[in-house]
Amino acid sequence: MSLKKKIAFSFFISASITAIFLIFEYISFIEIRKEIRFLEITDTIRSKSLQLRRHEKNFFLYGSIKGDKESEAVHKYIGELNDILKNNLTIGKRDKLSSLQNSINEYSNRFNKIESTLKDLTIELEKTKDSRINTQNLQFYSLIELTFLERPFQAADFLEKVFLLPRGHRLVSELRVLDSEITALRKNGEDILIFSKELDKSARENVESVIYRSQIIMLVFFPIFIIVGFVTLFYVISNVVMRLRLLTDIVEKTGRDALHHMVIQPKKWSSNDEVGTLIQKFNYMEEQLDQREKELLQSKKLAAIGTLASGVAHELNNPLNNIYTTAQRLIKKTGEECPEFIKNGLEDIFGQTMRVKRIVGDLLEFARGREPQFKETELNNLITSAYRHIANSIDVKNINFMLDSDPEGIMIYADSEQMEQVFINLFINAVDVMYGKGDLMVKVRTDNAAVKIKVSDTGTGMPREIVEKIFEPFFTTKDRGTGLGLAIVFNIIQKHNGEISVDSEEGKGTTFIITLPKRNI
Asked: How many whole angstroms from its chain centre is CA 181?
């Protein structure tokens, strides 16, 4: 985000905070009004539910005395409750009101069923009273009729024991059914009261919650939002000035002596502004300059060492050839009569001369550093050819060699002889550090412009201080090494306009990473 946009954004935040605060308060007032209205409804529901239960209780208590009046009152309050719920299902809390509506409907159906059952029982009682078998107990029938609703189960028990009515008699069985219906009706009534109380309680809590939230917003959130707005504005300004001052100091130090990298990273939200972009470009420039400086220093070092090596190699080459030829002739002329120690001495001279000639050969190869002859080369064949070459000279039977590359082949423009020498040196080093046993993997990946090659081993790895010196001439960790193999590799990769780096950790192996362009101009 640009500085101009940041400043505009800061002012926009302040205005937005005020607008959001007003909108939030307006919504809170609407919620308060809605919750108060719902509270009035729940209070009415609770009041009518209590009246319903009172008349229900009177209906079962007084029965035939004033049962019709109480029954009318029950139906009246059921109708009023249904009207309230029907007219207010759209104001919210639909699930709670629907649950209450279901309980009221169930209550109404059960009450109607009880009334119908009561009429049937009255008729059945009259029939039983007229039967001859019960004439001796006619004085108890009026008492039984009065207790139909209050204690139907006891009435059924009384008819069964005193009047000797069978258990399957219609009057007895329907009285027992009536008892269970009345119990269920009272449970429905309790549920209605519980729902109405919960609705009332929930509505009061919601009103208090919305009012409390509005108070919190007015007393706390608004000042906090204002403070945050000013702090954000101050932070943007101070952050920009601080980073510009830091960048100025770093530029001055860089101009006076050496390169300095910005150690303070810009914040994510400000990394794309003009200052953040400038810091990123500056850091990138320093990284490139530092890399170029190291490469230049390495090139100068290689050139100086190459000149020295060339002179030394030429001076040593002629004496070594004479020693090599003489030792070879003397070995051929020794016969059976020649003492053993002389033969051993001549063979040792010959062997050491060969070793020195190889070292001189490496010096000449390093010093010559001929320019590569670029031509189209298939990379997979080149890598496998290099591995077959080392397999003919060293023991690799316990080495698990793997090439992970495009099976269709990868074409690059390179000097095949020099690149083969690169892989031979890397493979020999890998086999040496694995002591002839382990995994040697070459992984090749490509894109439109470059090819990345990773040569990994499962050897002992190297500490950081050795990795930093690995490409320096004559630096070696081997007892009999010349320290020129990786220096030659570095030289060849540079002449191919490529890059080579090392990733190594002690005990976890080493990976050489080579990046080559597909075409060299």
From this structure: 59
Helix ranges (H only) for 217-339 are 222-256, 274-333
Torsion from C-alpha of 26, 29, 33, 34, nearest 10 degrees: 60
Give the whole-angstrom CA distance, residue 431 versus residue 453. Answer: 18
Tokens read off for 241: 């000035």
Contact partners, residue 270, CB within 8 Å, separation at least 6: 1, 6, 236, 239, 276
The pairs formed by 206-212 with CB atoms below 8 angstroms and a separation of 24 or more are 206/35, 206/38, 207/32, 207/35, 207/36, 207/39, 210/28, 210/31, 210/32, 210/35, 211/32
Q: Is 505 helix (H, G, I), strand (E, B) or coil?
A: coil
Between the CA of residue 467 and those of 167, 378, 476, 487, what are the distances in Å? 103, 30, 11, 13
Please say if the pLDDT value at position 198 is more than 50: yes
Separation of alpha carbons 319 and 327, rounded Å: 12
Q: What is the pTM of this model?
A: 0.41
* Helix (H/G/I), strand (E/B), else coil: 441: strand
Per-residue pLDDT of 201-241, as tens digits, reads 877 887 788 788 777 777 776 777 677 777 776 776 666 66
pLDDT, residue 479, reads 58
